Amino acid sequence: MPAGKALVTLAACAAVMLTGCATSSWEDIGSAWLSADGRTLTVRLLLAAPSPDAKPCERVTDTEVNEFPSKIVIGIQVEKDCPRPWPWEEQVASLLISRPSPVELQLRKPLAGRSVVNNTSGRHVRIYPEKRTSE
Question: Which residue ranges make up each domain of the chain?
Answer without folding.
Answer: 22-129
